[in-house]
Each structure stands twice: as structure tokens, then as C-alpha cells.
Amino acid sequence: MELNGVPIDNTFAEGFPIWMSRVIITGVTREWALIAATEATGFATSAIGCPCEAGIEGYLSGDETPDGRPGVSILICASKKKVPEQVMERIAECVLTAATTSVFNGMPDAEEKFDIKIHFFGDKFESKVEVGGRQCWKIPIMEGDYVGEEVFGMVKGVAGGNFFVMADNQMTALMGAKAASDAIFEVRGAITSFAGGIVASGSKVGAKNYKFPIPATTNEQYCPTIREKVPDTKVPEGVKSIYEIVINGVDEASVKKAMAAGIKAAVMVPGVSFISAGNYEGKLGPFQFKLAELF
Amino acid sequence: MELNGVPIDNTFAEGFPIWMSRVIITGVTREWALIAATEATGFATSAIGCPCEAGIEGYLSGDETPDGRPGVSILICASKKKVPEQVMERIAECVLTAATTSVFNGMPDAEEKFDIKIHFFGDKFESKVEVGGRQCWKIPIMEGDYVGEEVFGMVKGVAGGNFFVMADNQMTALMGAKAASDAIFEVRGAITSFAGGIVASGSKVGAKNYKFPIPATTNEQYCPTIREKVPDTKVPEGVKSIYEIVINGVDEASVKKAMAAGIKAAVMVPGVSFISAGNYEGKLGPFQFKLAELF
Amino acid sequence: MELNGVPIDNTFAEGFPIWMSRVIITGVTREWALIAATEATGFATSAIGCPCEAGIEGYLSGDETPDGRPGVSILICASKKKVPEQVMERIAECVLTAATTSVFNGMPDAEEKFDIKIHFFGDKFESKVEVGGRQCWKIPIMEGDYVGEEVFGMVKGVAGGNFFVMADNQMTALMGAKAASDAIFEVRGAITSFAGGIVASGSKVGAKNYKFPIPATTNEQYCPTIREKVPDTKVPEGVKSIYEIVINGVDEASVKKAMAAGIKAAVMVPGVSFISAGNYEGKLGPFQFKLAELF
Amino acid sequence: MELNGVPIDNTFAEGFPIWMSRVIITGVTREWALIAATEATGFATSAIGCPCEAGIEGYLSGDETPDGRPGVSILICASKKKVPEQVMERIAECVLTAATTSVFNGMPDAEEKFDIKIHFFGDKFESKVEVGGRQCWKIPIMEGDYVGEEVFGMVKGVAGGNFFVMADNQMTALMGAKAASDAIFEVRGAITSFAGGIVASGSKVGAKNYKFPIPATTNEQYCPTIREKVPDTKVPEGVKSIYEIVINGVDEASVKKAMAAGIKAAVMVPGVSFISAGNYEGKLGPFQFKLAELF
């Protein structure tokens, strides 16, 4: 299969379940909501070494938020046990402390709910208040009053959606990946948790050549500079640089939509020469996103 | 004392020691270095609930970096034991995985050094390489080769530099705080770890009114909306909003310089009515930054 | 009438016809399309002193552009005679010369069309090419080939949509205006041509106190700092700062939608105290946008 | 000569005199100064079709501006007669109307001065005021009072500093040009007037193949896609994309410094394969900037 003349590999991305919660952060302007959202979703690229995986899902206009202010929607992904803890910590440390922000439950219809008890921060100066039909707490702080919800929904979503953008030089692969990441930003229900939405260094579990325990090492099969040294290399001939886009979504449909949008954008960048995806031959995850069926 | 007609409180900020390391992140353009630096310094506002305190110190031109590429300098602050761990994790998860980045030791002259052994990620495909006189490792990854240093210096710096920007309305206090935060960004040796460099909700240790253990609650003495309910309020009459700027610096001089730059900028914003600072009456920290002596 | 507790003046904005063309600029990423669009819409705040009025209407995803690349839509507004000239100049100088851009007719259904003959730049090295069903020219340039349309539509739209955001201090009025400008950016069919979408200095035609010819002077009726000196002042008591949002739209409905979105956003900013609008008592323009009927 | 392994052509850039004025725009924060500066320097890429050439020279901290607020410095370049007119128009339309801005003479020591009489806008409500030792006018406007200087200096500077960034693919050449443009932004005394600081389409005076009068057409000697059709092509073998960086500076030294900084940055981008420069064989301009002598 080809898209805009670029071959699309006959393969699939393999995904697996992950729990996630959506937090809506509003601010006096989008800029201030975004400042808080950026801090709250930092240090959250991969669950291997970060406390969670998180990213900005998209922007919300005042019509789309409970308090009528501009907002930023984020997704926080981890184990079922860790999602509440991470939502709590990231709101308490990064959003409650940020200028002009409020937070709202971005999954009000989710069956699974949890409560973050942030109102204790008020030391009994807090009070209940309803905003846009939501039960919130108003907590006196230095800037004035912080207002936000405490009960959040979470769903079992999908992690590991992915595809590779390849080219015969690094700058082209990078621009292809950037175009893809930008396009995915427009898709609701999906995030890319890595910096800039792009992964420059893929990993495999454990090591082949080091004998001591190590959680992850470079995935040499996808490393262009050692292509000649790796007998089972998966780097196509002529490819000199690969970036991976890794996607978490609230459901399979969102991941598919994000993958499709990203790939369509990447192949428009002149010089992008091949699109593939990573999987564990179906051994790891229950979700298979066949590239050929995305479009 | 007054500055641009704004009264400067006759008080001091109280600081205490904190260990910190400077990591220089370079990229193919500043934008890409900044993307990685932003991810690496996220979820790092306050050591109370985050794994560390971190922030972007400033931009570096190609003339100022070991590899001649544009860079972003970050500071990562924590206990002496946790700094190496956090530098390791944040580089491994947020920078090594980011597009086009390299990392370098930003404190080559520090006596205290540590080693982050990131080259094991190469699974023996890595090799040593010298860049700008620095001993680096070259690790094959998907985008090409990652190059970076592994040995970093750390110093015992100063946390808790701070001042308050006050006004009779929230938007004015916010713009004053923003102007301050922008000005501090230009000062080398200092960071503001909170989102946007601004703290909207100050805290006190423990609680007064809740009887169960809780690490921190709102600092009601600085809450304008409950000024009438708090007998020992420190909110000046007429003040309706307060933002705090919290500064960590590599030494006392950097914190002083950052405080001075920030306050000078804040008082230029029309409507900012009072500048003060927070302390524990000298009981907690060995450093006292008297506002009157900053200028 | 009140909105979020803020009084909305019982008045109307007065608009008048203006010709305008929509140019779609695409680029390899949105960033590069935006760089060109920003240059092309600069020096275009007011037809009084600028060659035209222009602004960025909004972003387009790859699904919304003829060539499948991300885009930025701009509107260029002037007299019927000047629109073709300004579209020509701004494309030739600011977009053709910019990196990775293409331009497309953003009003393919308009009855009124014009032709900008940009292909002569190719000095007979150019050729015709079809992109997304559009008849384009391909012109060899340094970066590779420039591709773009030459025939553009234009419509008689509406200029002069406006409202005032008022507060008892400047920073609050400014943040209210900024929130409004951000909200209007989301409305298709409308632009705000002034810097940042905000007007800080309103004007009246001619002068009252200077006797020599002068095209425009400050509108003293809306100047808070001389409120006491101007008998017919329109500054409400207590108001210390006013910003105006001026809107051009492709039709009356777009202007109304933009005004409504902007006002709804402005009144959410704490401290914004009054919303009004400017008119010439119905003497100048055929369009009257009553604030009370917008919602 | 080589730089970072990239051949630097044995040629020179040819420059010629141009008059220019520096305007310092300050704002309540850098963001607001930048918003005005961006509008004021738009539609100003090339004097061929724009009313002037203009660009942002750099950022100024509060310590570097007359009023102690953060600022943005711009250069406006044109004929000696047109500089005053363009400074007047761009300040009046784009800065006076923008939020929170002031303007100051950025060339107080220039022998050549001009006066823009902007205070007539005040319709006799204006008054004189001194700011930072500068004689300014205070004009009542809607947001409050506008304050700014009216007398500006101008100097005979240098236009036409330039170099070409070449690569075997477009994305690499683009990133090389972007790195160069970023680096030049840090050099005081120089601007790049084109969108993003980058020129994608070079031109020659007049036409070769069209017989009617036309001011400029594509410079086919530097067009990679028609390399085989142009006997006197200057496109090196293997080069598929070229971007030009065009620089105006206040003097020869500034242009040299900017060219050096830009070229040094460009050659760090992986894949950039050749650097050259454009000239008219010394027939046009009195300034020759030999690439080999820049470093």
C-alpha cells in the first residue's frame, strides 16, 4: 500500500490496555491553562521510568468547559492504582499552584471514579460551590479562590498505538514526525506522551549483550547507524533515520484515528520514504492496528 | 523603601541549602532542545510532592555549548542522594528519547560529581567519543546516534528565594508576577520551578484546623479572600491578590540577582501595589535575603 | 442586560461594507505556514494608514486544504480595486519567498474573481499543474518548486464590527481583551486586524482642536485619563482602561458570531466591568450589531 | 575552506548602502512588545515590492530600555526619504494602536535625525513628559496614556549581506536555514527581513524569457529542479534545495558578525552540504563580504 507515493508497511501496531483519566484545566486565557497543563504532563513520557504517561489531548473553547473559560484537556495514564495517585499529585503540585487555573472531571460518564480530596488543602477555610453543574470546592489561596472538582472518572484505554516515520536523512524524518505529531494533536481522545510527541530512541525490554539486569536497552533492530552490524535489522535499505510516534487513546477508535491522521500528515513531507509500525508479533497486546486498514 | 513608587516591605526571604545539578541540553535548533528541556523539567514544582524541583535556567548559543549547537540549560534540585537519580531518570526518559538532543555537564568545575551510566542503554553497541573536549558516549538509536556526557557535577545551592507581588486585583498581580518571571529567566544561575515561574497558592507546613496528618495546607495568612476571618493575616489592606515567585539558585548571589531583577520588573506593571517576601522568622534557613539590600 | 454579572451596554456596533479575499497558505508544517501568514498580514491594522486590513482567520488541518498539508487561512480586506493588488503583493513578497509554502483560493465559490499572474515570476520555466482539483502553477525556485493558485475570489464583507472591554485598571481590561481576541480566533469568517487582535487607541476622523488637516486623532470621548476634561465623555464612572476589539467578517453572521464569542470570553475575566460598542449613531454604516441581540 | 566538514564556497556576498532607523518598542511584558513589533515589521521583506525592509533585531531587558520595561528592538530600512515615512506609519498604525506599548529612539547618537510628529494624534490633549532622560509625549488613548519619543535617528547601513544553505534534500536545507536564522537573531545590529528570516525564492532583476517589463523573476541559476535545463547553473551537483539568508545591518561589522554566526550554525545541521553567497561580481555594491574571511 502507498500513501502520497510513500510505501506503508504491511504490518500492525500492537496495543495493550492502560488506565487513564482526563483532567480539564481551565484558565483566564488558554495560555495560562496551557502553562499549568505543560507542567502537569511533564516527566511523563514512558511508564518504564516515569510515574505515569501523560500528554495534552487538545484545547477546549469556553463553550466546551464547565466554567466557560478556555481550557486544555490532558490525559494521565498508568495502572489502575496509580492513576488516582498521579492525578492527585499532578493537580496538587502543578495546577493548584498555577495561576488562574481550575480543574474539572473530563470523564464524567466513566463508571470508574475516584476522589482526590484536594479540599483538605483548604484547612477548613474551603467551601462547596457548584460550577456549570459540577460539584466543586472553593479553596482560598494567595491569588484569590481556587475552584475545582475532586471526583474524576477513569477508563481502561489503549496504550502502544504507534508508527515509524523513516527517511534517508534525519531532518526529513524529523519533519515528517513533527507533521504527524501536529496532526495527532487535533484528534480528540489521543495523546502522544513523549517530548514533542516524538520518540527518537526506541527500546527493547532488557538487554542482549549486557548480562546484568537492566530494564530496557536500545532496539538495535531499528538503529540505522548499526544496520550492517545487526543481522536481523528491520531498517529498510537506504533509511538513515527513524522516528516513532507513540499514541495512547481512550479507546481503539481514537488510537486508530490518531494513527491515520499522523501517517497521512507524515507522508506529505517531501523525502519521507517509508512508514512502518512496531509490534511483538501479537504476543503482548490484545489490540492490533493494521496500517493498511486505517485509511 | 519604594521602587517605581511601589512600597517594598522591610522584610527578608529565607533560604535554605539544596543540592542541584545543571544539565545542558543541545538540539539541532533551540526549539528542539527546548522541547526536551520542558519535558525534563515538568512535574517538578516543589519537593513536597514532586520527585525534585527543576526549571529552565536559560538559553545558550552555539558558542556556549560543548558541541556548538544551540542549547537550553536546566537545573535539577533535590537532596544530595536524589539529584543523581533524578538527573538520570529525566535524561533517560525525557532527553535521550527526544529528537536531536545531546546532554552535557553544566557544572564541570563542581567538586561533587556523579555518574549516570546511561551508556548501558546502548547494549554494547555504544562507543566513546570526544565532543568539545568532553568525554561522551555515542549510542545508536532510531534517529541516528545519541551523543552525551555521563558525569555531572552538583553543588549545594540555595532554595527558597522568594518574593510576593500584590495588587488590588488578580489580573494586575498576575501580570506583575509574569513580568518578574520573565526578568528572572534572563538571570543565569537561578530558576523558578513552578508553572510559568509563578506560585498562586502558598502553603504552610501541616494544618491548623484538620487534626489528621497532612503535609501542607493553604497559608491562610496570605489569602486575600479570607482576610477578615484570619486575625493574624499578613494581607495588606486593599490587596485582593498575591502571587509568589520562588527561586532556586546555584549560590546566594544568583538568588539575590534573580530577586532584584524580578522585583524591579514587577513594580513596572501598572497597579502592582506592594512587594513583600516570606520567611520563617529566621528559624528555618541559614540564608536571609533582605529586600532593601537587593538594589 | 448582564453577562456573567457584567453589564452589556444597550448599544450597537456599526459596520460598513469592505471587499475581502481569503488566501489559504499551506506549509510543510503549520509553523511554516504561520510564519508566512504572519508576514503577509503584517502592517495591515487599519485602512487609514496601511495598504489594507488583514489578519489570520484560523488554522486548517490537512483535511481542509487542497494539497493535504496543514494551512493557515488569512483575509485581506480593502477597496474592490485594492484587494487584487494587495493579495498580489503580499503573496509575491511574503509567501512565495517563504519556506515550503503554497497558496490557494479560499473563496472558490465567490462570483467576483481576480487573477494575480504570479507565474510570470517563473520566466517561462513555470508549468501548469493540478493540485486537489485546483489549477495551479509550478514555479522553479531555490528551495525546489513553488506551487500555487493564481485566481482568487473576493466578496463584499463587513468591516467595523467592534466592542469595548472596560475595567477599573489596565491589566484587567487587557486580559479581558486578550481572552476576547483568543475566542474570536476560533470563529471562522472573521478576523481582528490589529496587533494581537486588540486596539489600545481609538480614533475619530479629523481633529477638534488642531486646525490643520489631519486624518485621525484620539477619540477623547473614550479616554479614561482625561475623563474629567471631556464634557461629553463616554467613559463610565470608575473605568480606567478600555480596549476595543475590531472585527472584519465575510458576512454579517460571521461578525455577529465573532462579537458574541469575544464578549462571552471577556466577561469571564475577573474585574472586567463593562462592555460597550462604538457607532456613528447609524449615520455611517448600513450594518448595526446590537449587543443585546448577539446572545 | 571547510567548517564542520562542510565546504564554504570561495566567494563573497555583495552589499550596498541602505538607510535604516532603530525603534525600541517596550511593553508591559516582552510578549506585548513583541506583538506590536511583529505587526510593525510585517509586509516588509524586500524593498522591491514592500514599502520597506524591516525586522526584529532582538530583545531588550528592562535594564536596556529608557523606561525600564522589557523591549523589542526593530530596524526599519528604506531610502533616506522613505525611512521617516515608514517609521511614522508603522508606529502610528501598528504600535500606538497596540496594547501597553511605548516607543523610543534606538539610535540616539545618530547624526541624521527626523521627527514623526505623532503627538498631533493627541488633538491637544497631549503633554510633554520625560522618561529615562528622553523627551517624550504622553497622549491620552483608550487604554490610558501612550508615552513615546518622536525624534529618531537613522544611519546609512548595509543591505544585501547573504549566504546560501544547500543540501541534497529540502528539509535539511530548511533546518540549516532555520538554525542560521535563529543564530543571527542573537546578533545585535542585524536583521533578516524575510519571513522566518529565510528566503525560499531568489530573484534576478527583470526577465530573460518574457519580453514585457517585469521587475524581477526567478533566479534560474540557483533553481535545483531545473538544473539540467540551465547551462550556466550555479547549483552544485547533488544539491536539491537552497535557502538564502539575507541580512541588513547597521554597519559592515554587524553584517559580518551575523553572516559568521549564521553560517556556523547552519553547518552544524546534519546533511547541510554546501555554503555559498550571492553577488553581482562586484558591479553593484561597494561592500564585499568574503566568506573565507568571516571566521
From TrEMBL, chains A, B, C, D:
GO BP terms: methanogenesis, from carbon dioxide; one-carbon metabolic process
Protein name per its UniProtKB record: Formylmethanofuran--tetrahydromethanopterin formyltransferase
One GO cellular component term noted in the UniProt record for this chain: cytoplasm
Formylmethanofuran: tetrahydromethanopterin formyltransferase Ftr N-terminal domain sequence ranges: 1-141
UniProt keyword annotation of Cell inner membrane present: no
GO molecular function: formylmethanofuran-tetrahydromethanopterin N-formyltransferase activity
Family as reported in the entry's similarity comment: Belongs to the FTR family.
Protein's cellular compartments: Cytoplasm
InterPro entries documented for this protein: ForMFR_H4MPT_ForTrfase (IPR014053), ForMFR_H4MPT_ForTrfase_C (IPR002770), ForMFR_H4MPT_ForTrfase_fd-like (IPR023447), ForMFR_H4MPT_ForTrfase_N (IPR022667)
Function comment: Catalyzes the reversible transfer of a formyl group from formylmethanofuran (formyl-MFR) to tetrahydromethanopterin (H(4)MPT) to produce 5-formyl tetrahydromethanopterin (5-formyl-H(4)MPT) and methanofuran (MFR).
Entry EC number(s): 2.3.1.101
Catalytic activity: N-formylmethanofuran + 5,6,7,8-tetrahydromethanopterin + H(+) = N(5)-formyl-5,6,7,8-tetrahydromethanopterin + methanofuran
